[in-house]
Amino acid sequence: MKIGDFARLGQVSVRMLRHYDAIGLLRPAHVDVGTGYRSYDPEQLHALNRLVALKDLGFTLEQVRELLVDDVGPRELRGMLRLRQVELEAEERAVRTRLAAVESRLRMIEKENHMPTDYVIKSQPALRLIARTATLDPDRMGEHIGPMFDAVADAIAHAPGALETPVATYAPSDDGMDVVVGYATSLSQAPQGTELVDLPAVQAVCGVHLGPMTTIHESWQEMHRWIVDNGYEPAGSCRELYVRAEAEDQADWVTELQQPVSRS
Predict the structure, then answer these.
(1) CB-neighbour burial class of residue 14 (10 A; exposed 0-12, middle 13-18, buried 19+)
(2) What is the pLDDT along the chain (264 residues), one digit of tens a residue?
C-alpha cells in the first residue's frame, strides 16, 4: 500500500507515518531505492493501532517502543485504558474543583464592599466526634472531605442515629490544613479506622451558608471580616455543622458556620 492509502486506513497523517519511520517505531514494509517512496503491508495496521492507542493513553514514544516489542495484546490494552480513564476522570474533577475555587475567589472580590450582619454569638457545648483526621492541601480539600465522611459513616452506620450530626473542623498549620471529619457521638470507643475527637465548649460566632461547598469560602471570608470589625478574634478551629447535606444536588445544602472567638 502507498503511504497515503495506509495513512487513510490507519486514520493518521502521512507526516506522522514518516515521523514513526524516522524514529524507528514503524518502518515501511518497503522503500523504493530509486524514488524513496514508502509502502506498507496491510498487516502493519495492527502495529499502528497499538502504537496510536498507547500514545493516546499518555505513554512516551520510548515507552511505546518497549511495549510494542513486548507485543501488547488487546486485553492488556483494555486494562491500560481503564486505568488511564480513572486517572483522567480524577484530573477532570481536580480541574473542575480549581475552576470553582477561582470563580468563588472572584465573587469574593466582587463582594468586598458588601458586609452582611446576620451573625450571632452562641455558646457551643463540648462535643465528642467519631472521626477521621488528616492534614490536607487547602487547594485540594474538596477531593478528600467527602471520602473521609464516607469512611466514618461506613464504620458506624450500624448504630441507630449515628449519622445524624455530621461535623468538620478546620485549622491552618505549617503543613496545610488540619482537618477533623466525623459525627457527634456518645460512644466511648471508636471503631477500627476511626478515632474519638473531643471538641471543647466554646463561645462562637455563628452564621449559615446556603448552597454548595464550592462557595463556602465566600461565607467564611464574610464572617471573618465581621469578626474582626466587631472586636473579636478567632480562638480555635473553625467548625462546620452540616444541617442538611443529604441531597446529591448541593444547591439545597444548609451548613452552620461556627468560629470560636475571644475578645481582641
Answers:
(1) middle
(2) 899 888 888 888 899 899 999 988 889 999 988 888 999 998 898 888 888 888 887 888 888 887 777 776 778 777 877 887 888 888 887 777 777 767 766 665 666 555 455 799 999 999 999 999 999 988 788 889 999 999 999 999 888 889 999 999 999 988 899 999 999 998 889 999 999 999 999 999 999 998 888 888 888 988 898 998 899 999 999 999 999 998 788 888 999 999 999 997
Going along the chain from its start, the domains and CATH numbers come out as 3-72 (1.10.1660.10), 120-263 (3.20.80.10)
Q: Which single residue is written with the C-alpha cell 471543647?
A: 200
Please tell me the pTM assigned to this model: 0.59
Helices marked H in the chain: 3-10, 14-22, 45-56, 61-69, 74-110, 145-156, 216-229
Distance (Å, rounded) from C-alpha 97 to C-alpha 75? Answer: 33
- What is the signed CA dihedral for 81, 82, 86, 91, rounded to 10 degrees? 10
